[in-house]
Fold:
Amino acid sequence: MIKGLRDWPVVQLLADLEVSDLAEVQAMGRQLPSQHMVRFLPSPQAIPNIVLPYREPLSDHDREIGRFHCTTDFFAEVEFWLQHEGRNPSARLIAVEVACWLPDCLLWAGHRLHGRLTAACLEADDLAVTAGRRSVKLNGFEGQVQVLQRRITSSPESVEWYCRDHGDVHSEDNIENNVHLSNDRRCWFREASGVNAGSDPLARSVDDEVSRLGYDKIDILKLSFSSVDLLRTFLEGLGEYFGIVRRPN
Structure:
């Protein structure tokens, strides 16, 4: 079969040529079924968001539905923070999102908090990172939101990053720990030794990355996959936070 960009079939490439890489999204305002009695407000206007220029679930959601692809729990945590810190003009919400894909949640928070946000998105895929950085610039959040290409693991010194095409799945693969990247590849960390161990410059732990960013506390830590032990030392050494939001992909 003739292959195209990133080994996609030509038929798929032709279908994707008409897909826009720009979406306009809003958040719906409603009462939240949360342990905290909060109400998150609708976006006053449609917000531009750069998405991936091919068919994939999150980009299609933003393009076709026009709503932020984000968890209700994240909205609730931001509103809960505002209830406690909203009258303190010097307070800034500090958030870290692991495996964000597209930084919809952080873009919404940036608009909701009107400049009182310090946040980092840690994402493995290069195309998603590029799209996220364009969205940050387009919305004027440079200096507030960073989109960093990182492969998060609790053991960066003893693993290697390994990829296969989606169609090339072996029975011995640990599918549960796979991270799906883009349209064509399935990638995950596997145990390594010798020269392969610790050789990936993008492999980091949450602890290492938060320390490098200089955050002495986290208000919201959002995990968009749950199969990796991310919090082994995080909870012991980084101070108080309001919430951990989990959304397995």
Summary: Residues 72-85 form the longest helix (14 residues). The CA atoms of residues 93 and 117 lie 5 Å apart.
